[in-house]
Design a protein that fits this description.
Length: 69
């Protein structure tokens, strides 16, 4: 196995672990628990984190604070 493949596997495991260890986020607007593996809805979410509530559609930053729009 090449070092590149090993690095890829280790990197993937670290990302997986971080995802599993993070507490579940709750929507500040409606209180719905958000899925741990979010799909970024736009460029800002992909770059900076943050997510869109699956239930009410309100936007939050990566710390779970509501983004007023
Ligand atoms: Zn919500």
């Amino acid at each position: 196995m090449s070092a590149g493949i090993i690095g890829g596997i280790v990197g993937g495991l670290v990302v997986l672990l971080i995802g599993l260890l993070m507490p579940a986020r709750v929507c500040p607007n409606c209180g719905a628990v958000q899925p741990k593996f979010r799909q970024p809805r736009n460029f800002r979410q992909a770059m900076w984190g943050g997510f869109t509530c699956v239930t009410c559609g309100c936007e939050m930053d990566r710390n779970g604070r509501k983004i007023s729009s």
